[in-house]
Amino acid sequence: MLSEAVQDYLKSIYKLANAPQAGEMVTTSLIAERMQVSAASATNMIKKLAEMRLLDHKPYQGVELTSTGVKMALEIVRHHRLIELYLRQSLGYDWDQVDAEADRLEHAISEDFEDRIDRALGFPTVGAHGEPIPSKDGDIAVHDYQRLADTPEGKRCWIRQVSDRDPALLRYLKEHGLVLGAELEIREKSPFRGPLRIAIGADGEHHLGLDAAEQIYVELDPTASHSP
């Protein structure tokens, strides 16, 4: 059995490496920021994971999970995302509440409990924030989504995934109808990291800051090309 700390690091490294628009390497500083620890603490854990052959560490470049590390990370991610979706769909939690609850529960559930949740939810493949749920065999879908912030003016798109890191952001997005499946169109992109003016559905319009737009991942309409 891996310790909870090791599991948390594996999950975080996997998510950093596989988020939409992720960079090539996951650095120590990124890991420390995600785990909210000092660089020294992150470095010590990275050395431990390397000794356990769960990751490869290239000094001054970054880390990459080994095949064993990926397999273990996907099992933890599967637990987390199934729990999140169960809390959301069956227990009525809002999408800004489920991440913290799942963090506490993911280490404790048995494989039988995982299977029961999976079956009760109808064997889902997409989580509460739009992320793919790994299969029990360790397979996971890869989606070609892009950040809303990178979407051209006049382009229609749909929200498919949202970062789960900031509950306040999730509450804000929900208040303005920026939820999974929402149809958007970029009406105007202000220069110098200014806000986006977006149409939401048929009637709504909103000005959205880039910090928020960078946490929203969308699927583009390949056929539509509107003038702003």
Fold topology:
Elements: H1 4-18, H2 28-35, H3 39-51, E1 55-58, E2 62-65, H4 67-90, H5 98-105, H6 111-120, E3 146-147, E4 156-162, H7 167-175, E5 183-189, E6 196-200, E7 204-208, H8 210-213, E8 216-220
Antiparallel strand pairs: 1-2, 3-8, 4-5, 4-8, 5-6, 6-7
Q: Provide mean pLDDT, rounded.
A: 92
| CATH structural architecture of the domain at 146-220 | Roll
Taken as a percent bin, the fraction of beta residues is 15-25%
Strand order of the largest sheet: 3-8-4-5-6-7
Counting DSSP H or I runs of 4 or more residues, the number of helices is 8
Roughly how many Å is the radius of gyration?
A: 19 Å
CATH superfamily of the domain at 146-220: Ferrous iron transport protein A (FeoA)
| Tertiary shape | globular
Named CATH topology of the domain at 146-220: SH3 type barrels
SS elements, strand count: 8
Largest beta-sheet details: 6 strands, antiparallel
